[in-house]
Amino acid sequence: MNKVISAVTGCILLGLTSYGMGAMPKTNEDKAKDELIKAFPNLAIGSISEDPQFTALTGLYEVVVGDQVYYFSEKGYLFVGKIYTKDGRNLTEEKLTKVLSEKLKRLPLTKAIKIGNGPNTIVEFTDPDCPYCRVVNKYLSKRKDVTRYIFMFPLPMHKNAANKAAYILSAKNKEAAHLEVFSEQSAKMSFLSPTPEGAKLVEESLAIARTVGIRATPTLWVNGNFVGSADLDRIAALLKDGKEVAKK
């Protein structure tokens, strides 16, 4: 990274080692990871990486934990926050985008509900009773330029969501069942307890979600770009030409 880091915002000190730590070679990621594990043994580390210029300037290593990016210093501190360059680039967001894009490659799209056949590809994790998911679905249902790959992710807080998800997944025509459940008339429908097959399909969908760290809905990838909310403006921008259009 050629830009000088000018700000570290929202940093939270999560811990400090209670023992002395020797100086770590600036380019030795393995030793940095060993020290991180010693300092924070309960941290589920996905990866730790060192960019020579970045680390030399900041004294920090990038640490990926699930779908979060943290920063570890050679003095034993772990920071949570965003790092910007002096020209406003959000380096944390750039790293996170790369991490989440890699997760997309691991998804078995053949197990998703496929709707549409447009040039734009959207991968969705959705909950039938999530109001924000319904907002996204209503918007995407009107577009003819998308191919949607939908995974069910019923949240525990929605007591009927799992039954509705099972209804969709066990239907012969899953696209029609999805349309039915996400319609405005679904509130008047009754959904019985799922069949063993339906319950199994829901659990399979939840297991797929866990492999990529899904924790909330809606979660989407639009043309490979991660969108972690019902941000219709960003979704529209990503659909326009395959990349996000900078807001003026």
Strand and helix layout:
Blueprint: E1 5-13, H1 29-39, E2 47-49, H2 52-58, E3 60-65, E4 68-73, E5 78-85, H3 91-104, E6 113-115, E7 120-126, H4 131-141, E8 146-152, H5 161-169, H6 174-181, H7 196-211, E9 219-222, E10 225-227, H8 232-241
Parallel strand pairs: 7-8
Antiparallel strand pairs: 1-5, 2-3, 3-4, 4-5, 6-8, 7-9, 9-10
Give a structural overview.
The chain has 248 residues and is of the alpha+beta class. The protein has two domains: 5-96, no CATH class; 109-241, 3-Layer(aba) Sandwich (Glutaredoxin), CATH 3.40.30. The protein has helices spanning 29-39, 52-58, 91-104, 131-141, 161-169, 174-181, 196-211, 232-241, and strands spanning 5-13, 47-49, 60-65, 68-73, 78-85, 113-115, 120-126, 146-152, 219-222, 225-227. It has a five-stranded antiparallel sheet with strand order 1-5-4-3-2, with helices on both faces. Strands 6-8-7-9-10 form a five-stranded mixed sheet, sandwiched between helices. Helix 5 (161-169) packs antiparallel against helix 6 and helix 5 (161-169) packs across helix 7 (196-211). The chain is elongated, with a radius of gyration of 21 Å.
Count of folded domains:
2
Distance between the termini: 26 Å
- Sequence of secondary-structure elements: EHEHEEEHEEHEHHHEEH
Largest β sheet strand count, sense and barrel closure: 5 strands, antiparallel
Which structural class is indicated by helix and strand composition? Answer: alpha+beta
Main sheet strand line-up:
1-5-4-3-2
Q: Determine Rg (CA atoms, Å).
A: 21 Å
The general outline is elongated
Mean pLDDT: 79
State the name of the first-level CATH class of the largest domain: Alpha Beta
What fraction of the residues are assigned to beta strands by DSSP?
15-25%
Uncertain runs are 1-27, 244-248
Helix content: 25-40%
Task: State the total count of DSSP E strands.
Answer: 10
CATH level-two architecture of the largest domain: 3-Layer(aba) Sandwich
CATH topology (level 3) name of the largest domain: Glutaredoxin
